[in-house]
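User: Hello, can you help with two protein structures?

Assistant: Certainly.
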Amino acid sequence: MSWQGEPPPATPRAGTAAAGPGRSGGPRPANGAGRTERPGRGVGRGDGPGRGDGPRPSVLLDFDGPVCTLLPQDRLPVLAGRFTDVIRARGIPVPDTPPLRADPLESLRFAAGTGDADLTRALEDMMCAVEAEAAGEAPATDGAATALRDLHAAGLAVVIVSNNAAEAIRIHLERVGLAHCVAAVVGRPYARPWLMKPSPAPVRRALSLLSADPSGCVLIGDSVNDVQSATAAGVRCVGYAPDGGGRLLAAGADDVISHMGDAFHAVVTGPRRGNGSNQTWQEL
C-alpha cells in the first residue's frame, strides 16, 4: 500500500521517503507524514462479485466521515482555539471568523498564509499528533467496513483521499483490519495546506497513482470540499450525508447516499437522476 502525504518521486522504492516538489529531500517529519511505500500486491484485482462484468470505476474515498469519525465535532473548536493561541503567541493577529473558530485545519491554512514556515510546521506537527492519537480509538462509520470489503471483493481499487494525515489513516485501517482493502492513501501534504481539498490536487494525485482517467473514477465524500475537489478534477462524486444531502447536491454531487452500506451500489450503478435533477438514494 502507498501511504502519501506528499507526491512521490517518479520511481519510488519501497520504504523510502519521497521528496515533494521544491523540497530538498532532507530530514522527514517524525510524525510519518509523507512516507511512501510500494502499493500492496493484488489490491484492486480481487476475484469477488462483479469480476469480468466489464470496466468498473476506481473509488476515491474520503476518510473522516465515510470511514470513521476521527475527531468529534465538539472537539474541533477546542483544537482550533489551541491553534489560534499558538499563532497569536507569534504576534500575528488572527481574525475572529467562524471557520477559524470551528476548524483547526482552517487555522493551519491561515498559518500557511502568513508565510511563517516554522509556524506552519509547528501546527502541522500538532495536528498530526492529535489525529494519530484519535485514530487509535476512532469509531468506524456504520457500513464502512461492508463497503470497503464489497468494493475490494469486486476488484475495484480504492484510494483514500483525505485532508487528514496519512499516518492517522494507516493507524485506523490497520486497527480495524481493513488496510488490505485499500490500494493507497493520499493524505494531507505536510505543511502545505493549500493543496488540501477543495483543491483538485489530492484527487489528481490519486488518479496518477491509479493511472486512471477521471471519467473512470468516483469520489465518495461528506463535505462540500469533497464535491468541489472531485468536480474540479473531472471525477463523479457521490455524497455521503446521513442527515440529508441537500448541501452536497447543491454543491454539484451526482448522487447522495445516507448509509455507507449503499456505497457499492451507488458506485457500480452510476448516477441516478429524476426530472433532470440529482436525487438522493433514499428518495428513489
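That covers the first. Now for the second protein you mentioned:
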Amino acid sequence: MLQAPGPLPSSAAELILTANTETRIVLITIAVFSFASWFLIGWKWWQMRRLGGQATRFFEELERSPRLNDAYRAAMKLPPSPYNRLFREGITFYSELRPGALTEADTARHTLSESQLEALKMVLGKEVASERDHVSHYITWLATIGSVSPLLGLLGTVLGVMRSFIGISTGGSSNMAAVAPGVAEALVTTVAGLAAAIPAVMAYNYFASRISRLEGELEGFGNELIGWMAREGLI
C-alpha cells in the first residue's frame, strides 16, 4: 500500500529547508560567494569614498599654493593618498637628478635633458600604474563571483531536475503534483545564483569605471606636475 505524500512546500524557505544534500551544498557555496561579494562591495565603496575626499583636499591645497615647493610641503602634510605619493615620487626623482634645484633661486643650470625628462615621465607612469593596481586589488573577485554564481545555480538546477526524473522513473508517478516540488526545489539554486551574481557584476562595472577615472586623474596630475616644473624653469 502506497504511503500518502507529505505536505508539499508552499514557499522558497520551505523548499530550502526540505532540499536534498546536493542542493544544500550548492546553496551554501552561493551564500558564501554572496557574503564575500557584499563584503568587497562595502569595503571598496568605503575606499572609493575616502579617495574622493583625499582628491578634493589635495587639489584644494594645490590651488592655494602658487609655487611648486609650497604645494609640495602642503601636500606632504595631508594623509597618505595616491595623489601625494605620486607627487612625492616625482619630486624625489627630480631631486636625485638635479640635487638642490628645488631650493636654489637660479634654476637655469638644473634643467633636465631630453632623456632625463623621459625617465621622469616613466617614473610617474610607473607610480600611476602601481596606485591603480593597489586600488583595484580584489576587484576581479567581483567579476569571478558574477560569472561563477549563475553557473553554480545552473549546476544545482540540473542536479535537482535529474533527481526529480529519477524519482519519477523509480516511483512510477508522472503527475504534476509529483514532479513540481522537485523542479521547484531545483530552480531555487538558479534564483540564488542570479541573486548573488547581479550585485557583483553591477558593483564590478561601477568600481572599474571609478578606477579608470582615478587613473585618469593621476595621469593628468603627472602631466600637470611636469608643466609646473617647466613654468618654474626646472625642466
